[in-house]
Amino acid sequence: MTGRVRGFLKGWCAVTETPSSGISAPYVICVGTTLEDTAGIAEAVDRRAVVLVAPDTDTARGLLREQPPASRRSESADIIVHGHLRVDATAREVTWAGVNIELSAREFDLMATLASDAGRVWTFEELMSRIWKTRYLGDADPVVSAVKRLRKRLAVAVAELRVVSVRGVGFRLVVPD
C-alpha cells in the first residue's frame, strides 16, 4: 500500500498521501459496503475526501497500488478461456469452440465481466459499477435487459453456455467443462 491509512471501520478506510494513485486529495475506499452505508460515508466526509467504491478487496488493493492494474496486465491477461469459451478483451471478441459470437459493446462488456470469474455471482451493484460505470440505485432493469439480450445472442450460438439468475442478487455465468 502506498498511502497512509488513517482509520478503518466496517469495510472502509481513509487513505492520504497517495500521489502514485493519481488522487491527490484524501480519499475513502468503501469495500463491499451497501449503497446506504456508502452514501452515509460520502455525507460524513462532506467533500473533504474523495469516496471510492470497490466491490471487493482485490479491486480496492488495485486502487492503492503504485500503477493502475490495467497498465500492468499482460496480453495473455486480456484473454479469458473457460473450456470452449474464449473472451479476448483486446479484440473484443467472444468465441465458442472457435465460432465467433456477435455481441454489441454492452453485451461484450457484460460477457467479459461474467467470464472473468465464471461461476461467481455478480451482484446488480457490481455489474452497474463495472459495466455502466454508475452507482446502483435499486433499479435492476438495465442489468436485466442487458442479460436478456446477451442470453438471446448466446442461445443462437451455443446452448450449453448460460447466464443464470440468482433471484434478488444478480447473475452468474455457467460454463460447461
TrEMBL record:
Residues 77-175 form the OmpR/PhoB-type domain. The keyword Cell wall biogenesis/degradation does not apply. The keyword Glycoprotein does not apply. Keywords: DNA-binding. GO terms for molecular function: DNA binding. Residues 77-175 bind DNA. Pfam families: Trans_reg_C. InterPro entries: OmpR/PhoB-type_DNA-bd, Sig_transdc_resp-reg_C-effctor, WH-like_DNA-bd_sf. CDD domains: trans_reg_C (cd00383). It comes from the Bacteria. GO terms for biological process: phosphorelay signal transduction system; regulation of DNA-templated transcription. This is Transcriptional regulator.
